[in-house]
Amino acid sequence: MSERMRQLGDVIPRPASVRPVPDATFTIIPGLSGTAVSAPPGLSAVAAHLGLSFSDDGLSLSDDGAIRLALDPALASEAYRLEITAESVTLTGGSAQGVFWGVQTLRQLGTELPGGIIEDRPRYAYRSAMLDLARHFFTPDEVKAHIDLLVQFKINHLHLHLTDDQGWRLEIPGWPRLTEISGGAGTGVDGAGPGHLTLAEYADLVAYAAERFVTIVPEIDMPGHVNAVQVAYPELTADGAPVAPRTDAEVGYSSLVAAKEETYAFVETVLKTVADLTPGPWLHIGGDECHSTPAADYQAFLARVLPIPGALGKTVIGWHEIAAADLPKGAVVQYWRTEPADDAVARAAADGRKVIVSPADRTYLDMKYDADTTLGLDWAGHVGVRRSYEWDPADRLPGVGEESILGVEAPLWSETLRSVADVRYLTFPRLPAVAEVAWSPRDSRDWESFRERLAAFGPVWTAAGVNFYRSPEIDWH
Ligand code: TNX
Questions:
Q1: Same-domain check for residues 175 and 38
Q2: Where is each Beta-hexosaminidase bacterial type N-terminal domain found (predicted)?
Q3: Last residue of some domain: 62, 90, 120?
Q4: Is the model's pLDDT at 51 over the cut of 50?
Q5: What would the pLDDT profile of 178-199 be if each residue is shown by its tens digit?
Q6: 69 near 91, Cβ under 8 Å?
Q7: Measuring CA to CA, how many Å separate 453 from each of 396, 410, 445, 477?
Q8: Residue 2's pLDDT is what?
Q9: Sheet harboring 59-61: ordered strands across?
């Protein structure tokens, strides 16, 4: 992948254990007469991913290939073991997913594989990126291409922010105006758009993600961030009066009405539609920035809505404001603020709830890198590469220790985005930094090592046409 020979540990995220054996390089020769891969039937799809990683023709499959894929149930499901000798490569995973992560490690090492043994497994089970389709819509093909880039860094969840004040991006049977009107032309910030996912497109996206061991986490944001709902269905406002569309980037001005029964008929239909189409275990109900919802109404609304995902067989996730409400057992709280302390989140953790850590001043991909960045926002300050790397989830929130942390997410809000090139520019290279925070053992992380490993991605991304920010913090190859 790069001109220079990689060392065995030159991988992002840094593997848990690396033991090089000098002078034992294995060379992959792609193409029909080149290196063959052997894999049991349950791993043939993963073997195909490996093949396509190395050339357009891929690697051939054979019963006695020099690259062998295997399963070992004694390993944790996302764990893998990679042994490279001069004669062979053996990649063993606790499940097909573990083997798939090992394939990503192989891809980064390139075709000249340094000898030795890597034993690797993730620190956190939930390693996520979020994409905001509401402020700016991205097509299914664009989201798929994004997933292909995320999995290279062993990200295993993609949170889709599907609804907000500006637009509504998922077809809901029985509520057609949501997408006809609020998915129509001009519904993105500053008039970008149109766009929405049909049920079939959403299901296809979920399946595409699942083939790459990524779980889609759909978010329907409520009771705030609902102006687009009320434009389409004014009966869901307090007085039923027409509502003007808004494509500015203000937040906190709209709310569903806790005291109206129509509200819950709407919410139940939407959540059932999404749950039925989503094989993954999570339903994200938003709950953030409800500045125009009186506190008692927020409580009343959440008392009705928080149990719905559970009744549909899903686990509810909400932004950390929901910790102020009475949380069902198993509810997951996603922390997003910059301030270090939040008593309600600490209480939720003390009661056994899990927390997803996504502090804006470390993980928000929509913050500007520095004063010269034209894209992005800066309400949480500038977030350079080192800033997104040098912090630890277990130190971030008082009362929220390692055992309470489900994982880490890097959200990308899309108010300032207009293209896939913009998505990539803000995602790379900060997403790899957050991915290493989420995957690698805490004591293995080191900024100097990271910046050297990251530098090798310059030519890789350039060759692949991936737009990225040439941060001056990195000595790019
Ligand atoms: C805050 S973080 C929001 C979003 C904005 C974002 C911009 C959170 C849960 N809500 O509505 O898009 O800031 O950075």
A1: no
A2: 10-120
A3: 120
A4: yes
A5: 999 999 999 999 888 899 999 9
A6: yes
A7: 25, 20, 12, 10
A8: 43
A9: 17-20, 116-120, 80-84, 89-93, 67-71, 31-38, 59-61
- Report the residue count for the chain: 477
Q: How far is it, in rounded angstroms, from Cα 137 to Cα 134?
A: 6
Domain region containing 304: 126-464
Residue nearest to atom 7 of ligand 1 (CA): 413
328: helix, strand or coil: coil
Are 473 and 384 in contact by the 8 Å Cβ rule? The answer is yes
One domain for residues 442 and 316 = yes
Ligand 1 centroid – CA 465 distance (Å): 29
List, in sequence order, the alpha helices (H) in 240-341: 261-277, 295-305, 307-311
**Region 265-282 average pLDDT:** 98
342 phi and psi, to 5 degrees?
Answer: -155, 105
On whether both 100 and 135 belong to a single domain, the answer is no
Rounded to the nearest 10°, the torsion over CA 390, 396, 401, 402 is -30
Q: What is the mean pLDDT of the chain?
A: 96
Residue 52 domain-assigned (yes or no):
yes
In angstroms, the CA 251 to CA 270 distance is 22
Pocket test for ligand 1, best of 289, 382, 409 (most atoms within 8 A of CB): 289
- pLDDT one-digit tens code per residue, 406-442: 999 999 999 999 999 999 999 999 999 999 999 999 9
Q: Burial of 163 by CB count in 10 Å (0-12 exposed, 13-18 middle, 19+ buried)?
A: buried
Per-residue confidence band for 232, with pLDDT thresholds at 50, 70 and 90: very high
Measure CA 119 to chain center: 24
370 & 437 share domain: yes
Secondary structure (DSSP) of 332-387: EEEE--SSS--HHHHHHHHTT-EEEE--HHHH-TTB-SSTT--SSB-TT----HHH
Indicate whether this complex's ipTM tops 0.90.
yes
Residue 83 shares a structural domain with residue 144:
no
Atom of ligand 1 nearest to the CA of 249: 12
- Ligand 1 close to Cβ of residue 361 (< 6 A): no
C-alpha to C-alpha distance for 401 and 299, rounded to whole angstroms: 27
Q: How far is CA 276 from the centre of its chain?
A: 21
pTM for this entry: 0.98
429 preceded by a cis bond (ω within 30 of 0): yes
pLDDT band at 4; cut points 50, 70, 90: low
Quick check: 214 and 147 in contact, CB under 8 A? Answer: yes
Pocket of ligand 1, candidates 189, 413, 416: which has the most ligand atoms within 8 Å of its Cβ, to mutate?
413
